[in-house]
Design a protein that fits this description.
- The structure holds four protein chains of four kinds.
- Chain A is built from 13 helices and four strands.
- By secondary structure, chain A is α+β, with helices and mostly antiparallel strands.
- In chain A, helix 5 packs antiparallel against helix 6.
- Chain B has an eight-stranded mixed β-sheet with strand order 6-7-8-3-9-10-12-11, with helices on both faces. In chain B, strands 2-1-4-5 form a four-stranded antiparallel β-sheet.
- Chain B is globular.
- Classes of the chains: A alpha+beta, B alpha/beta, C mainly alpha, D alpha/beta.
Chain lengths: ~375, ~325, ~325, ~350
Amino acid sequence: MAEERGGLGAEELRYYTASQWQLIWWRFRRHRGALVGAWVLLVLAFMGAFAPFIAPYSGTARDRDYVYGPPQIPRFWDENGFSLRPFVYGVKTERDPVTLRKIARVDRDQRRYLRFFVEGEPYRLFGLIPMRVRLFGVEEGKIHLFGTDELGRDLFSRLMFATGTSLSIGVLGVLIAEFLALVIGGIAGYFGGWIDYGIQRLTEVVRVVPVIPLYMGLAAAFPPEWSNVQVYFAMTLVLGLVGWPTLARRVRSHLLAQRREDYVLAAELAGARPAWVIRRHLLPSFTSYIIVDVVISFPYMVLSETALSFIGLGLRPPTISWGILLQEAQNVRAIEQAPWLFIPAVFVIVAVLAFTVLGDGLRDAADPYAVSRR
Amino acid sequence: MSAPLVEVEGLAVRFPVHSRGLFRRRVGQIHAVDGVDLRLERGETVGLVGESGSGKTTLGRAILRAVPVSEGRIRFHLEEGEVDVLALAGERLRRFRRHMQLVFQDPYASLDPRMTVRDIIAEPLEALGLAASRAEVDERVREIAQRCRINVEYLRRFPHAFSGGQRQRIGIARALVCNPEFLVLDEPVSALDVSIQADILNLLMDLQDSFGTTYLFITHDLAVVGQIARRVAVMYLGRIVELAPTEELFQRPLHPYTRALFSAIPSLEPGRSERLVLAGEVPDPAHPPSGCRFHTRCPFARPRCREEPPELRALAPDHLVACHFAEELAP
Amino acid sequence: MLRFILQRAIGMVVTMFFVSIMVFVIMELPPGDYADRYAFRKFSGTGVVVTEEDIESIRKQFGLDRPAWERYLTWIWGIVTRFDFGPSFAFETSVTDVIGERVGLTLVLLVATLLLTYLLSIPIGIYAAVRRQSLADYGLTVVSYLGLAIPNFMLALILLYIGVTYFDTTVGGLFSPEFEKAPWSWAKFRDLLAHLFVPAVVLAWSATALQLQTVRATMSDELHKPYVDAARARGLGEAKVILKYPARLAINPVVSTIGFDINRIFSELPIVALVLGLPELGELLLRSFLDLDMYVAGAILLMLTFVIVFMNFVSDIVLALLDPRIRLEGG
Amino acid sequence: MSAAAAALLRVRDLTVDFRTDEGWVRAVEEVGFDLRPGRTLGLVGESGSGKSVSTRALVRLLPASARIAPGSSMRFRLRSGEEMEIAALSPRDRRLRRLRGGEIALIFQEPMAAFSPVYTIGHQMCEALFAHPEAVGGRLSRAEARERAVEMLARVGIANPALRFDQYPFELSGGMRQRAMIALALITRPQLLIADEPTTALDVTLQAQILDLMQELRAEFGMAMIFITHDMAVIAQIADEVAVMYLGRIVESGPAREVLRRPKHPYTQALLRALPRPEAGRRRLVPVPGDIPSPRERPAGCPFHPRCAHRLPGRCDRALPPVVEVGDGHRVACVLFAEEGGR
């Protein structure tokens, strides 16, 4: 409680002269869960952006010696003694005497030491910078942190690439949806009347059709001869096209509420042009809500992509996304034999949780004046 | 005597009433303001008194062109000549706004919480481009802030740092920064605590003394209007029923409605003589009563009141009243 | 009230009209048309050389040479008058035959899911709002986060996994093998109910999570309204106050979002059905989209949407019955 | 006979704290007053003075974040003659339900918000009757309850009471809703009516109607009343005694006439001076300097001293002023009177 009276404390002065963004930040900081969520997302985004650097191998490279291989967990010591440098065991391929199938067998005597910044296959970072250095690797043989799939592809590497794809598709989808929502909701909220009525009807029509079936309908229209890049962008477009109505409704009602505020009338009576009102009053009140909106709708985009790719109507291999990775875990046999194929699901869950918690925190912080109005 | 600053003639504001549902038919209209004549002399304060639903706020905003006007004339007599305000549109209307401003009732909703006090006060100057440079804007903001007894150090702060009374001072400073000739004050002290009200009323009187601004002071509180206004107009259901110099009105209210308003004010001296307590409430403005709109609640109503709307006529010099039987009823 | 219902009914028809146009557009979107796919399916691998003329004649046969709006009218006319949704090439019969029994199963599944959702979310949501920061409240928060984060198909996979590894049963399907092709009987119905549980839990999963939050949020809002204190001040017992006053209003948003819930459930149907092997509309829809059997897909899309729109209509009416403000003012 | 012995309600040292993000905030501090049957106490103060909180404490209708501090006492004499210590009741005590509505009734500032929108006026009135068989002479049948409710609606001046009985709150006009609220409160014939700014949201003409009605009903029902307002003039109309609150403390109390004619505390004086009077003539008012501090920044010593024109540096900002009796029942908490008055 304020002990010093009379003179204004530095703390109070700081509060009184704090702008909207500072207040939002102060309130947001108190929300521990949201901070954790933000960090988790930063890490995921980093993984996605630097996927080729972090992943020891390309997403399609096969390790024929280690098919359906379980995760290799780096260790420091075993019955053969301690090592300061973490290592994984080597594998030997043997043929099963009965089925004659090749199976990987762990060779506990062979150690593969983990090295950082090793030379690997060449790649281009961000599709531009040619590089060879990878974050980590082993000197001989290969390392598969999360194991491999039925073709012997490294799940860890694939997951890094998938993270990049899924997050970026979510971002683009949300951006398109938010853009449409702003334009359409903005027009409806600003002009009102018949235009508003018509747009409301249209929004309602798109909203009543079940979302995933609608996605499916649009995704089914992708011609089979389309390239991966085309499918990728078509997906973002579809996500955006289906996602806008909910956002547009929120934009519209927020705009209507803001327009009715006394201070907007005050600005108009002070001789402000519409552009001034929008720039000085409406947009600043809006941006924080839009950020919240984006964060909240993001999980739906990611989940929709995952779901669609999962059932084969979204992205197509060799593109790698969370949904495509999960496709391999679609049947019970796969999960039984190779439960590590379920690791991508953990990523999806963690990412969505992070977004949800972050969204909640932002929503609480987004209107720093809510309390002081009372 | 010179021409008045603001001249309002036959002003009417009607809001359409729509039915709900798919086909929004127009089912009627609310006569919020219905044929009001009003003249405001340069530098005077006219009080506009009435209950909620009387149309006083709409009248004030209509003069400022903040709500669409259905009928009538509004003229400003400025130094540069006479201006027909209703004929203004677009850019010319926008430019004209420097001559007339509004102070809001709610000191919380009327200040954008995302702008500093300096930016709020500077808005009319910057929006209208009335200052040549940023330095000049700062200079004028500083000057008006001092006049409105706002600590200059507060200009960097945001509205959330302030109490109701201080916020209202900011609102007044914003309205006055472009030196308007005419100010509509819409219940500027109703939302404030009693101990703060007096301070704001004093400030408004001081500012009028130094700037010579003309005030239209809207309130539901006759006691407040007695302190600040030179003349008072009493409104009932969109019409002015009585208009007189304050002293005259307080001593000799002629309209039964005005008298009822007076006797409804709780007094510090309990047990005053003859009280005129009104029955019922203000009727729905979408369906106003015929004839004299007050006849449904008037204790003296006669058959004629139901049929014939009374004209606003002068019973004494400067004392106008809209009642058929004002002479008989006069105390 | 009758007018209100009529208005909503008209609104429903208008919405369905636009939806049907949208569905038709989606049916037309994939490259190539019905004739191409029909010919490809019928003759590929048979060695028959299909010429342009052959396809053209098929096109004529199905009326595909006519303009889109004409085909739309024929299509919609068939649905409205004869309940004929067009042909399915994949099954080489009419869509109605293909859909047949699946409609009933889908509705049974839907009702089971909704019941489960509301039986869980309403009481728990109310309890969590009343006992804020209790164990129930925190548990609810965790569950509702998980409900959002774990997509239903993932939950289905998890349940499948648990079923296979720990209980050595497949939890998929709607019937035991012996009843799959059997005619309807009491035993078959009981078998269905037993199998219904897992899909219903999976489908209700995220809907419950969302509804829990909605109920809790509205309940928290309502709990602090003055009328609740007013009811307490009347001397009512706490349980009665809570259940009779705020809880009554906390149900309204649940009623008003029933269409939204069904939308969610239908959204998840195809994927969950795929994982759990359920013979209902969602699974068929998915298959028809993969096969580009567009008449089937269109019919299902239209039906699912119709259920949602119809339930929106029902919820509007129920809401009006629950809330006198809508009933008496909305008409 | 001493006044205290006949008191219906005796409040002593009532202190209420609220838990906030920044710690505990004291909303009401050491409030004390007596109320005799049939008398009206006017509780007057500006926003944040704690007048609503102190009366809510009487029926234990405080938010969950509030705490009545130990040492607070609110003794109420029930209809049965038994004395009850309201501060000692547990929030779940069944006797609390008899108290609420049966012995002490409340009317609120916003009648629209105080009625549930989904039940009829009559339904909510009958509920009060059914909840208090002890106060209304036994269990009533539906028909009897309806009859009483309609009677009561008629009594508070609602035309067409039988029709209004079956209407929803939003179908009534503002004035009628406030009348219905009063009818609802009085239907159980409570011993004490707490009216929390019942006329603030109303126009002056309606305010006059409601004040007249409440005066009438008070006389007819013979109940005691606590009337909360921020308007000194309303106090003059309706109250027998008055207690002036500032930042959670009673700074002056006594017979209404006496306090209004001869206010002693600088705050009361300032309030009365600042009040615009219904007289014509442009003149300067005398404002109270400064702003009301928020309850979380309560000044040390006398809460009013930062705004007081007569403050004595070194005294007013150090310790709480003693309560001094300056006339018959007229008490003031100000050091200016500490010497001359004595206890």
